[in-house]
Amino acid sequence: MLSARDLIPDVDVVLITLDSLRYDVADAALRLGETPHLAALLPGGAWEARHTPGSFTYAAHHAFLSGFLPTPARPGRHARLFAARFEGSTSTAARTFTFDEGTLPAAFAARGYRTVCVGGVGFFNGRTALGSALPALFHEAHWTAASGVQNPDGARVQMRVAAERLRAIPERVFLLMNVAATHTPTHFYVPGARRDSPDTQRAALRTVDAALPTLLDALRARGDTLLIVCADHGTCFGEDGYWGHRIAHPNVWTVPYAELLLRGRA
């Protein structure tokens, strides 16, 4: 665990959520050499298996944005990277960034950060009251149909939007990027496929990896970044008769996770 308490407010903070990405899919893509840009970031060259606090996007992101990131998938008392201050917390340690505000965006805003959301799935589209609830936590939120789940080129669109905002903002940034490409539907990433599967999700992840340098270059140009890359939850593709998420299944609860200090070029 990095010392977020020592890093903030001297670094940008970026949380990339790869929506619905299963741990086994991410791990397979890594072992097959299909995600070289992610591989270069991962501490120890591997994804960490963690358990998500929510089985679907809205619940998981509400938890994340209150400081409850995925928990290591092993027994023990695990300190958190971020935590709202409250009496008796057993997951707050010396390296935890603690705050009195109710959400992470509010905490970063209070410390001079510009908070930015680049949305992907419908919970970030701003078209309804529900689709506006999470984006409303940020100074600015960006979503178009081109960044949503139906566009096979959505990852590239999202990375470009995020990079443009990073280049334009002079102050420190807290960025949430919800990447839609790995969320269903993913069958169109594999020619001839008619149904979503681990293979089609892996193909979608390859498009995310290919688009990633645009964002990384913009971050490195600004300086150092506390970077968290994880899934918000997984999903089922017929295992044990289950399809989708918002269910209690190991393929939903177990997610890939990485945290690192991305060094800037300065």
UniProtKB/TrEMBL annotation:
Look up keyword RNA-binding and say if it applies: no
Q: Which residues form the Sulfatase N-terminal domain?
A: 12-252
Which InterPro entries has this protein been placed in?
Alkaline_phosphatase_core_sf, STM4013-like, Sulfatase, Sulfatase_N
The record ties this protein, via Pfam families, to: Sulfatase
Q: Which UniProt keywords apply?
A: Hydrolase
Q: Which residues cross the membrane?
A: none
By sequence similarity, the record places it as follows: Belongs to the sulfatase family.
Descriptive protein name: Metalloenzyme domain protein
Write the lineage as a comma-separated list. Answer: Bacteria, Thermotogati, Deinococcota, Deinococci, Deinococcales
The record's annotation in PANTHER family points to:
ARYLSULFATASE FAMILY MEMBER (PTHR42693), ENDO-4-O-SULFATASE (PTHR42693:SF53)
Question: Does the keyword Hydrolase feature in the UniProt annotation?
Answer: yes
Question: What superkingdom heads the lineage?
Answer: Bacteria
Q: GO MF terms on file?
A: arylsulfatase activity
